[in-house]
C-alpha cells in the first residue's frame, strides 16, 4: 500500500472518491506523423504552441503558426480545444509542471503532450490537479539531462489520481475558478500599485532635477563631468600579463551594479590609468537592444578590491569640481527616466548613446549645497518607494502561503 500512495497525488479524499491511474482517464498524444486520412491532418495554418506559451493558464493564441505541410514534417498533429497541455521536455522544469488548456485548436511543439480527458474526468479539474502537484511527486517524474530535463511519461500515466463524481468535480472547478480570479485580481491590483509608486518616484526625480520641459537649456554636460567611453573588447586581449576585471553593460542596472558576473581582460598599466574606475564614478550603459534599456546608470563605490576597468559598452562620467557625484548620478537616472537618453540614442537593433552625444546634453545644476540636498532628498524618496514596493511584494507572497 505504501508503494501505491507514493505514486498518488496527495489530497485528503472523501471515502467515495475513487483512485484511478491517469492512463485510464485520458488519451495522450503529441507525436507521430499524421497522414491525410488521419483525423489529425487538416489544411491551413494553425497556432503552434511551444513551452514559451505555457506561461499563461489558458492558451488563447500564440505568436507562431504552422502550415499543414510543416505539421507533417514536424511529426505532430491537431490538438482540439479543451485539451490539457503539458510540457514534458524543457530546461525550465523545476518544482512546478508547466500546464495549460488550449481554447482553440493548436499544434504542439515536440516537447509537449496533450491530454484528452475521457468522460469520467473534466479537463479543468485535471488542469488544477496537475497545476497543484507537490514537488516531490513531480521530482519523481523528472529525468535529469545535461541541458534539459524531461518527464517520464510512463510514470506520469501510471500515477493514481483521486477522482470525485462529476458534480463534485464541477463544484471544485467553480470554486477554484472563482478563487483564482480573486487572487489574480489582487495580484494585478498590487502590481499596478507598485508600478504607480515607481512612476510617481520617477516623476518626482525628473522634476527635482529640472529635466521636465528644459531640453536644450543650460551648459553642455561636458562642462560638469568628463565623459569617457570604455575600451573595446578584442580576442587578443583575452589573455595577457595584466588581466584585469572590467565592467560592461550587463553589470549596470538602474541605480545599482550587478557584480555576480564580472569578466577579465588584459589592460596594460597605461590602460589601467585611462580606464580604471575611481570611487563615485558614474557608469552609464552606452548601448542596449531597446530604447527602454539604453542609458541605465549606477555609481561605482569601489565595490571590488583592486583595479577595475570598464568596456566600451559603458560610459564613465567623472564629476568636475563643483559637481556633486551623487547629484550627477541622479541627473543621469533622471535623464534615463524622462526618455532624454533614449531621445539621443541611434541605431537599429542595438541603440547607442555615444560619448559625444552624451557630452552635448544640456545641464543646469544649482549650487553645490543645493545639489547635495537634492541628492539626499531623492535618496530618501527612493528608499520610501522601495519599502512600499517590498511591502506589496510581501503581501503578494502571503497570498500563496
How does this structure look, described?
This protein has eleven helices and 28 strands. The two termini are 31 Å apart. The strands form nine sheets. The protein has a five-stranded mixed beta sheet with strand order 2-11-7-9-4, with helices on one face. Helix 6 (166-208) packs across helix 8 and helix 6 packs antiparallel against helix 11. It folds into two domains: 2-164, Adenine-n6-DNA-methyltransferase TaqI, Chain A, domain 2 (Alpha-Beta Complex); 208-396, Alpha-Beta Complex (Adenine-n6-DNA-methyltransferase TaqI, Chain A, domain 2), CATH 3.90.220.20. It is α+β, with helices and mostly antiparallel strands.
Could you give the topology of this structure?
Blueprint: H1 2-6, E1 18-21, E2 26-29, E3 46-49, E4 58-59, E5 65-66, H2 68-73, E6 78-79, E7 84-87, E8 89-90, E9 99-102, E10 106-108, E11 112-117, H3 123-131, H4 135-141, E12 142-143, E13 149-151, H5 153-157, E14 160-163, H6 166-208, E15 219-220, E16 225-229, E17 243-247, E18 252-253, E19 256-257, E20 263-266, H7 269-275, E21 282-285, E22 287-288, E23 297-299, E24 308-310, E25 314-319, H8 325-338, H9 340-344, E26 346-347, E27 351-352, H10 355-360, E28 362-363, H11 368-399
Parallel strand pairs: 3-10, 4-9, 17-24
Antiparallel strand pairs: 1-14, 2-11, 3-5, 6-10, 7-9, 7-11, 8-13, 12-13, 15-28, 16-25, 17-20, 18-19, 21-23, 21-25, 22-27, 26-27
β-strand number: 28
| Proportion in β-strands | 15-25%
The CATH architecture of the largest domain can be given as: Alpha-Beta Complex
Distance between the termini: 31 Å
Number of domains: 2
Shape descriptor reads elongated
CATH homologous superfamily grouping of the largest domain: DNA methylase specificity domains
* Average predicted confidence as pLDDT: 83
- Strand sequence of the main sheet, in spatial order? 2-11-7-9-4
Poorly predicted parts: 1-6, 32-41
Query: DSSP helix count?
Result: 11
